[in-house]
Amino acid sequence: MKKIISFGLKNIGILLLILSITSLCSALIAQYFFNLAPCVLCKYQRIPYVILILLASLFIIFRHRIFILLSAFTLLIGAYIAGFHAGVEQKWWKGTDGCSSNIPDANASIEELRAAILNAPTAKCTEIPWEMFGISMAGYNFIISLVIGLSLIYAFFKINKKSS
């Protein structure tokens, strides 16, 4: 067991960096090569991975275990965003204001209607553009972020303080 933890400690930064870059590249490939327009919540889900690139890089450079804990919290925040998005997709709850179009009332001017149309989100948060085995991209992001985030918390407490 010590060898597994030792191996993980040496390579955890690299694995987190690979996870982050792969996740962001997958989202961008889906967007630009498969024309799956992201909604507001899809874009929010990318933010934790950008932060994770920074934290993983800092861990690789400094080898301090606090970056493992910060990475775990970043992934758990990402899991929350992804879980919220999956719930919006399933219509379990309402999404953010940015998820729906703000249609002006019947007394709106032509300029207000034009502005509402031009500023409308390109994709609705309630629509699932892609799924596999009944799970959307937000659902997979939730599962992956939650499992890895909890695993990092476990690793943080199992790693000997002297080995950081």
Explain what this protein looks like in three dimensions.
With about 160 residues, the protein is mainly alpha-helical. It has one domain (about 1-95, about 125-164): Bromodomain-like (Up-down Bundle), CATH 1.20.1550. About 65% of the residues lie in helices and about 0% in strands. It is built from 5 helices and 2 strands. The chain has helices at about 1-30, 40-60, 65-90, 110-120, 135-160; strands at about 130, 135. Strands 1-2 form a two-stranded antiparallel ribbon. Strand 1 (about 130) and strand 2 (about 135) form a beta hairpin. The longest helix has about 30 residues, at about 1-30. The protein is elongated and about 65 Å long. The model has no long low-confidence stretch (mean pLDDT about 85).
The assigned CATH architecture is Up-down Bundle
Taking Cα atoms only, what radius of gyration do you get, to the nearest Å? 19 Å
- Give the number of DSSP strands: 2
The CATH class turns out to be Mainly Alpha
The ordered string of helix (H) and strand (E) elements is HHHHEEH
Q: Let me know the average pLDDT.
A: 85
Shape verdict: elongated
User: Helix count, per DSSP?
Assistant: 5
Strands of the biggest beta sheet: in what spatial order?
1-2
Largest β sheet strand count, sense and barrel closure: 2 strands, antiparallel
Could you give the distance between the termini? 17 Å
